[in-house]
Amino acid sequence: MESKEHLTSLEKDYVYIKEKPEKMSRPSESPSTSPSQPYRSTIGISTTEQWEKELLADPKNRLALSALSSNDAKAVLTQRSATIANSQNFNVKISLEGAPITNQRSSGRCWLFAATNVFRVAIMKRYNLKEFELSQAYLFYYDKLEKANYCLEQILDTMDEDSDGRLVQQLLASPVGDGGQWDMVANLVEKYGLVPQSLYPDSHNASNSSMMSSLITSKLREDALELRRLAKSPSEAKDSLGAVKDKMMRDIHGILTLMLGPPPKPNKEFTWEYYDKDDKFHSLTTTPLKYAGELSSKESIEANSGTNIHELFSLVNDPRNDYKKLLSVSRLGNVIDLRPVRYVNVDMTTMKKACVSMLQANIPIFFGCDVGKYSNRTPGIMDTDLIDYELGFNIRLGMTKEQRLMANESAMTHAMVLTAVHVVDEKPVRWRVQNSWGDSSGTKGWFVMSDRWMDEFTYQAVVDPRFVDEDIRDALKQEPKM
């Protein structure tokens, strides 16, 4: 999940082309009809000329032409009233939001930034820190490595599928994309742990990931075809599949190590030196796994208002499916044999109630949304009333959340963190959002999300089990619907 990529169903729509296309009518001809196509026509030249004449006869449209053809449409159509209404003032706010504002730069690592921005609050409380960042690049390195292995394992598991079928094609579409889900970062932390950013900072290719991802993708696609070829060979060749795959993974490991730098080893000790917020020097020697395990220690749980970070789970709002049901996505994951990607589907009232309760308990919230809809990154505002498309284009966009999902008009594209909410008459009005686009976006990196926008374009919130009802927790025991 991230700003550049989003989850796509394996069952993509496709275009059906007849072997002998019917003859298309010329612009001057009448529309042709048939029992299967009661109305079929081309676009007439004279028709478009008439449309243009009628459009520009309206002075408002001539003004819109002048403004919209010369400027950014979102800037022209942004409503000042929405900008004023979405102030950075909140009556429920966690005491420690985490600093500094982070920057994922030219990468799709939003989910890793959002997750580590949640983790760091617990660590900052535990060690009395003023500012702190965990290494996003550390998790990024191992995520790419695990995704490559996951891809090849999926290829081995789908040998009976046609190579040009939709399933195999989807597996190879973006095998090591930058995006991910909460359960995927939980897997990485469980297997590899965490380290401070000062011990493994971003390299150029962590901040600018497209070339590295493209190279690994090309290699994996070539490797996938080779594995499929060997699987159809005589038994002697099939016996070598494991060794061949190991060699392929060693090559991927080499690319990652040379482009990101050798990462700390999960079980090897490192020494972290730091100053607390009272300017007192400290030194801690531990391993990445033990460092992450500290989040479940008695001291960390007490510092984090009783929340064990490792026990958080995802709520999702998908109106296409029944609520209080466990959902998953087939063949989506990163680490083989660890936790699958799972969500408990709930209505927005349930999701927002849990979020308000967590903020009241001083706990930040990882959430996923469709960040590009009705938003402006310059003021950092997300509001369904922000951009008036009807004023500019004489159209009204009226799909429901369910319809947008059905039509592939909306999806979860970005992850951020909630740290505050403004509540009036026991109802949320607006939410404070910590983004990972640097401090030049929004109000020094902070965004505001209206409650109506949250209803329409927020899909996921990662919550503490304590703040949902028992029937929601029990849904985690269900067999997930794919």
Structure explained in plain terms:
Strands 1, 4, 5, 6, 7, 8, 9, 10, 11, 12 and 13 form an eleven-stranded mixed β-sheet that branches. The chain has a two-stranded antiparallel sheet with strand order 2-3. β8 and β9 (381-382) form a beta hairpin. The chain contains 19 helices and 13 strands. The protein has 482 residues and is α+β, with helices and mostly antiparallel strands. The chain has helices spanning 45-56, 59-68, 73-77, 80-85, 110-127, 136-157, 166-171, 182-192, 204-207, 210-231, 235-238, 241-260, 288-293, 298-303, 348-360, 389-393, 401-406, 451-457, 470-474, and strands at 92-93, 270-275, 281-286, 313-316, 325-328, 342-345, 365-369, 375-376, 381-382, 414-424, 427-434, 446-450, 458-463.
Largest sheet: 11 strands, mixed
What is the approximate shape? globular
In total, the number of strands is: 13
Count of helix runs: 19
Which structural class fits the helix and strand makeup?
Answer: alpha+beta
Keywords, please?
39% helix, two-stranded antiparallel ribbon, eleven-stranded mixed beta sheet, disordered N terminus, 482 residues, 19 helices, alpha+beta
List the helices and strands and how they pair.
Blueprint: H1 45-56, H2 59-68, H3 73-77, H4 80-85, E1 92-93, H5 110-127, H6 136-157, H7 166-171, H8 182-192, H9 204-207, H10 210-231, H11 235-238, H12 241-260, E2 270-275, E3 281-286, H13 288-293, H14 298-303, E4 313-316, E5 325-328, E6 342-345, H15 348-360, E7 365-369, E8 375-376, E9 381-382, H16 389-393, H17 401-406, E10 414-424, E11 427-434, E12 446-450, H18 451-457, E13 458-463, H19 470-474
Parallel strand pairs: 4-6, 9-12
Antiparallel strand pairs: 1-10, 2-3, 4-13, 5-6, 7-10, 7-13, 8-9, 10-11, 11-12
